[in-house]
Amino acid sequence: MSKASQDFLPCLVGSMSVGAAGNPTVAMIEAAFAHHKLHYRYINMEVSPDDLESAVSGAAAMGFTGFNCSLPHKVKVIDYLDGLGESARIMGAVNCVVRRDAQWIGENTDGKGFLASLREVIQPSGCSVTILGAGGAARAIAVELALAGVAQITLVNRDRERGQSLSTLLQQSLKVAAHFEPWQPEHPISEEATILVNATSVGLYDSQAKLDVDLKTLRSDLVVADVIFNPPQTQLLREAAKRGCRTIDGLGMIVQQGVTCIEYWTGCQADPVIMRQAVEQALGLTPPHTS
Ligand code: NDP
């Protein structure tokens, strides 16, 4: 960074959440800023739900360029914004806020990150996709896949109401052929599926956790993706790889959603390789980099 650029205050971005300590995004975004010599700082902020409105006003007062919002603020933050991007409006959740023309605009980069990671392996347009789960991650992924032109989405979830409501949203707002399948014991994956996504929280911090699916129905031509980023090699991905499936781990999604946030805030296309190294180190998956 040149002396001249250091004479200016850095542009500020950051994250508002509860349980902010240990957020691996900080290391990943700051590594990208350093690598691309962007004069930005990413500030990790613990913000309670009661303080969210004043925190958003405060960010405007302090000249923030934007911020991430994580749990539990992804839906409530919409009340304090001036507008929403297309997918954030459809899914009703925001994880990335951007200052545009003195307005706070809410975007959702979770599904976009998943899509970018998926596209490294397969183009989803025209594909038939089975998604396990119907929570926030499943919603973001399903909406983005529908916008990307998949032919069909099957949602498998334990809670019927949640599964059915996401299926209805996809049919009504995106006109995609979507249907809900109640989760059965040893759930079989449909022969029509080209892509299988685990968007449940099963596997988070537990590499032995098993999804209740019939592993014999994982065909070798299936692409299997998991949203779980820690540990990235989940039981599902290991079993899928054994059966010859192409697999995609959840670190790709976390990195690519960060790439999209940086592009919104700075206009820079950040290097995902640098960001993946940083997030792997932050999660303790690789030893610290020494140069
Ligand atoms: P939610 O709490 O909104 O949803 C959780 C989902 O998991 C629900 O569909 C729930 O089903 C399902 N589920 C939980 N336990 C089980 C189980 N034992 N068997 C079957 N289904 C189960 O969480 P999110 O959608 O926000 O997050 C899901 C996961 O995605 C988390 O682990 C999170 O860390 C990860 N994530 C990863 C991202 C990335 O960038 N890689 C980004 C965002 C999230 P039900 O409705 O029946 O209770």
Report on the structure:
With 291 residues, the chain is an alpha/beta fold. Helices cover 36% and strands 20% of the residues. It contains 10 helices and 12 strands. The protein has helices at 3-6, 25-35, 52-61, 86-91, 110-119, 136-147, 160-174, 235-242, 250-266, 272-282, and strands at residues 11-17, 40-46, 66-69, 83-84, 96-100, 103-107, 128-132, 152-157, 177-182, 195-198, 223-226, 246-248. Strands 2-1-3-5-6-4 form a 6-stranded mixed sheet, with helices on both faces. α2 links the parallel β1 and β2. α2 packs across α9, α2 packs antiparallel against α10 (272-282) and α5 packs across α6. The relative contact order is 0.14. The model has no long low-confidence stretch (mean pLDDT 95). Bound molecules: NADPH dihydro-nicotinamide-adenine-dinucleotide phosphate. The site of NADPH dihydro-nicotinamide-adenine-dinucleotide phosphate (NDP) has 23 residues, from α5, α6 and α9.
Features:
291 residues, alpha/beta, Rossmann fold, six-stranded parallel β-sheet, 10 helices, 12 strands, globular, binds NADPH dihydro-nicotinamide-adenine-dinucleotide phosphate
Task: Annotate the secondary structure layout.
Blueprint: H1 3-6, E1 11-17, H2 25-35, E2 40-46, H3 52-61, E3 66-69, E4 83-84, H4 86-91, E5 96-100, E6 103-107, H5 110-119, E7 128-132, H6 136-147, E8 152-157, H7 160-174, E9 177-182, E10 195-198, E11 223-226, H8 235-242, E12 246-248, H9 250-266, H10 272-282
Parallel strand pairs: 1-2, 1-3, 4-6, 7-8, 7-10, 8-9, 10-11, 11-12
Antiparallel strand pairs: 3-5, 5-6
Helix pairs in contact: 2-9, 2-10, 5-6, 5-9, 9-10
The chain binds NADPH dihydro-nicotinamide-adenine-dinucleotide phosphate.
